[in-house]
Amino acid sequence: MFQKLRALLVTSKNLLLLEFFTSIVVLLTLLPQCTQTTEKNTINNYYGASPEQYEQVWNRRKKEVTERLPQADDKEKQLLKVELAKIQVKQNNLHPSYEKYITELKERIAELEQFKSSNPQLFNKAIGALKQGKNKVADDLFAQVEKNNVDTIKTVAEASFQRANIAEDEIRYADALAHYQKAYRLTPNNTLYLNRLGFIYNILGKYKEAFKYYELALKSDLKTYGEDHPKVAISRNNLGSAWESLEKHKKAIEYFELALRSDLKTYGKDHPQVATYHNNLGSAWESLGKHKKAIEYFELALKSDLKTYGEDHP
């Protein structure tokens, strides 16, 4: 049809209409490409770092830690060894580790976009940087929020918390701990901050401190939400993990079972969080040498995840 109309315009020697028509055809030709490019960029921005960039982060971080180790004192050396072990786990499980990073990034961005900041301009820029996988830029922007909003405690606390998340993502645990501590000091009743602080202490092998913050989180959540709430289940699961780290497997099982019972009521049996608790219980029973019992829970976790994700998911 375009060819026939063009021929008609040429025959009629209407050059202005011919030029206009040619421009329209060019635009119509380019439009699908522009739309496709825009959609691709939006997806890339939302998903943060590419798999290649993600791999480079761990290669670079491993080099930093390895070079620092010989110069470190005994206390720092212990921390660096923990970090090096965690980096190695990431490198050995690169694909599932990347998938987990993407999932958690999406959740974090969704929560951040709901946060009512007293400095929305800087927060939005930081969110944009996180979406592009530019953690250093995001960290600098959150640092500006901390500096420029000292009179708004909630906003400064959230900025500190986000800086802790970034440091934890990059396995910079000393920095993560410092930022989580600041967030907690500013808003001591925020159970999310309490749980993350407990988590870092647990990673660092400081179990007494980990229990302290996990138990504070559980107490607060029970008071706020009651027994059968997902946040209460998370706090109980965290306590179970802490007991598991101490090889107190029976105690761990108590907390894992409470978390499982709660989330079964909330979500039903085929939910990813329920699968996680089944898996945790399987690990705990396996540690006690109860292999048949462990297999029961692992099979429940597998069955649930197959329904949720399908065969080819990490």
Structural class determined from secondary elements: mainly alpha
| Average pLDDT figure | 86
Low-confidence stretches: 1-18, 20-46
**What spatial form do the alpha-carbon principal axes imply?**
globular
Report the total helices: 15
What's the N-to-C terminus distance? 50 Å
Share of residues in helices: over 70%
Tally of individual domains:
3
User: Radius of gyration in whole Å, from Cα?
Assistant: 26 Å
Query: How are helices and strands ordered from N to C?
Result: HHHHHHHHHHHHHHH
Largest sheet: none
Share of residues in strands: under 5%
Strand tally is: 0
Question: Can you describe this structure?
Answer:
With 314 residues, the protein is mostly helical. It has three domains: 1-37; 47-187, no CATH class; 203-314, Serine Threonine Protein Phosphatase 5, Tetratricopeptide repeat. Helix content is 82%, strand content 0%. The chain is built from 15 helices and no strands. It has helices at 2-11, 15-46, 51-68, 74-92, 94-114, 120-131, 135-148, 153-169, 173-186, 191-203, 207-225, 230-245, 249-267, 272-287, 291-309. Helix 7 (135-148) runs antiparallel to helix 8 (153-169). The chain is globular, with a radius of gyration of 26 Å. Residues 1-18 and 20-46 have low confidence and may be disordered.
